[in-house]
């Protein structure tokens, strides 16, 4: 998905998140009726954003800024505007790192004159490339013309593909430099048909017992673990000297 004008959080369609601009006056009335003080505004709109998504981010933030200024005009003692997260890291060949100066410039353009603190949630940006998941190949079999590479872990350990549709990069550790000679479906060990890590994935030769690495998954992996089907939590190894 990688952001653009549409994401899981915002876009042309209706969403469960936030307050629509046409509903802002009613929200202010409700807050006043209950004695609530509005001193912060929080935006939730991006996911995996790189440079080519910055124009869409700029457009969306402009609409958010218009609402923030309405809050100021209504007398709300705003202290902070949280512009959310969604800062991306390169995941695929040809992608370039996010230009943080350009990103900060967009934020400053919309909110720099308000005298408020700017909050940002760059967690995935900081940790994505710092983590990988190692799994053992337990099955390699052909089914109706599709080669399935089965791993000893499932979506309960890493659900980026299942939930977000993210394409995962795989490395067969014993043959990291080997060329891809086939296309496979990489499957997990949960008893559900959509427990897949990737479909039609270019893959080198692989056999049972090989270790496969899924890379750049430090953002959404261990913290989204679930004990679905009683599967145990994967062990985690940290290298503090590499921090």
How does the SSE layout of this entry go?
Layout: H1 24-33, E1 40-42, H2 54-73, E2 80-82, H3 100-111, E3 117-119, H4 123-127, E4 132-143, E5 146-151, H5 160-164, E6 170-172, E7 182-187, E8 196-203, E9 211-215
Parallel strand pairs: 1-2, 2-3, 5-7
Antiparallel strand pairs: 4-5, 4-9, 6-9, 7-8
Give a written overview of the molecule.
The chain is of the alpha/beta class and 243 residues long. It folds into two domains: 106 residues, Alpha-Beta Barrel (TIM Barrel); 95 residues, Lyase, Ornithine Decarboxylase, Chain A, domain 1. Helices cover 21% and strands 20% of the residues. The protein is built from five helices and nine strands; from the N terminus they run αβαβαβαββαββββ. Helix 2 packs parallel to helix 3. It starts with 23 loop residues before the first helix and ends in a 28-residue tail after the last strand.
